Amino acid sequence: MGQTSSFPISNQPSLKINAKEHTKNKEGNNSFALLLSLSLSLSLSLWEMENTAILREWFDRVDSDHTGNISAPQLKRAFAAGNLEFSISVVQQMIRMYDFDRNGTMNFEEFVALNKFLLKIQHTFSALERGRGFLIPEDVYEGLVKVGFSLDSPAFYTACESFDQNKKGRFRLDDFISLCIFLQSARNLFSSFDTAKQGRVSLDFNQFIYCTANCRI
Fold first, then answer.
1. What region holds the EF-hand domain (predicted)?
2. What CATH code is carried by the domain that includes residue 96?
């Protein structure tokens, strides 16, 4: 960790090879093997990571059935190829956050929006992990502030406990991403009720159930 890596975000080390060699050797492999090769092989600058052509290539590899849309299982397997393990519910939440046409899948434009959000989280993680490969709670708090979330202590520690998978106070990149996805989803939902922009809402029981069900990861 600590270095800038290509999208898809990967916990794997970056190996430098020529992109043409990657293309020449791609025949005969399945799409997810190709995706893993791509995420491991391309050593890209920040400009290249955000290059639409690179993102389109990645998207097309994940869209193995060529529908123009990525499903949650396809996206989950693609992340796993980059050594990022997310539950299917987290991946579904990623899609819901940017599912502008509400069809339950992710088209390329929606994928680009998700990419920008994930890159912001990855850069924050890389700036704080200090070569350890994980964040401690103090780092997580600082990172959340950098990403744009300001929580009081009860909310912060409750959220941290929920996303600390091993209960050791160490948050890997996928843990930190999952936490940020939850918080962004909760913020979006809260904002839909806070129409007066007062920073507080009143919910009846049915609305509360609706909110908790939509934010559940």
1. 50-85, 86-121
2. 1.10.238.10
